[in-house]
TrEMBL record:
Membrane topology: Multi-pass membrane protein
Annotated localization: Endomembrane system
InterPro entries, A to Z: MFS, MFS_dom, MFS_trans_sf, MFS_Transporter
Family membership: Belongs to the major facilitator superfamily.
Protein's name in the database: MFS transporter
This protein's record includes keyword Membrane: yes
Pfam families: MFS_1
GO MF annotation terms: transmembrane transporter activity
Residue span(s) of domain Major facilitator superfamily (MFS) profile: 1-421
Native source organism of the sequence: Pelagerythrobacter rhizovicinus
Keywords noted in UniProt: Membrane, Transmembrane, Transmembrane helix, Transport
Amino acid sequence: MVATLNKGRLFWLGVLALFTAASSLAIRGAIASGLKAEWIDPIAPLQAGELLAAALGAAFLSFAITLFVASAFLDQIGMKGCLLGAGLCFLVGPLLIITAGDVATGMTVYTLVWLGMLLSGIGWGLTEAAINPLTAQLYPEDTTHRLNVLHAWFPGGIIVGGLAGFFLSATLPWQGIMALVMIPALATVLIAATTTFPPPLRSESGVTFGEMVSEVFRRPSFFIWFGAMFLTAASELAPGQWIDVALSNRVGMRGILLLVYVNALMFVFRHFAGRLANKISNPGLLWVSSLLAAIGLFMLSQAQSPAAAILASTVWGLGVCVMWPTMLASVAERYPRGGSWALGLVGSAGALASFFVLPQLGAMFDEAKIEFAGGPEAFARLTGAAKLAVEDAAASVSFQRLAVLPVILLVVFGVIWLRERGKSRAMLAGEAA
């Protein structure tokens, strides 16, 4: 029955929804400094970094929970329902963020911003819950390549959102830039409402709901991939949200431009990830990615100039560019009976990583800046170049500590790579069947 559907329309609807999620993510990162300066600094100057990171992280929390729930009940909700709901969340979430300062005062403003971020994350979770199993269902023989091409448009959305945040900042307030997300959101709703979707995946595979849920528990090796997804996502998404706040002053260029550059690398290289995986296997590709990510994050912690920042971003970007879709493809190929539930679980792990790691980054930043200043009172007295110098040193510490995560992954993927050497994809799927 899938053959009678318009595969191209379905695939590009998935691209549009993911593009909307990504552009929203990038714009939230691009406006973070303006949001912090206008609304959070006056409320809580000593905890501003942690509060901002917590608000940004709220989107990852709701992403994780939504993806977890929607993936389990995807057949009941329907892929169409998920994408319609995603589009609506991408409309209402930014609206809350934009209007928070006009309808509230004090910490209530922060609460509305947090809720807006939360809704944006729900939209992202509904998107991932639908498009990943949809792509795997449409292209069962070419899953790694197709998921990487699909997820190439995540950095595509980051590029567009990041450039919009940079170039329009001189002519639009940050609220106006945030509102741009609502344009592709509306298109997602309209197209999803007029598109025919395939039947539920479990009705085609014959796997019952109980069998799908129990599959990941029947094969404990799944949870190695679950834990690895937590670390790969923390190595990719958390630095991406923090880079503009932490690096702009120290390296002499807007961090959002570095993020745009890194995502341009991702957009290109994700189109070739399937071929690379076929040559060295998915675990081999992920091992090389982890090595580059670790080196790149350490280099970012040491960068002091635009040239050094670009070089460090190149290494980090090449490292993280294929992690997310290749992790999803690895799970889809090894645990096919887990269906949307297995994919949703690992996606949730990735989202939870950013939820937990982002506030830690903000807290480390706040702790380090106060320590370098000589105490809270001393930091409160700092102004101008002296304050910037302290914050720059604190930013270096936060990135340096984050570089430990991909080092752990080198061990994990190294063991998997050696263990699976010589085994075909059919054999790996057979072990899970």
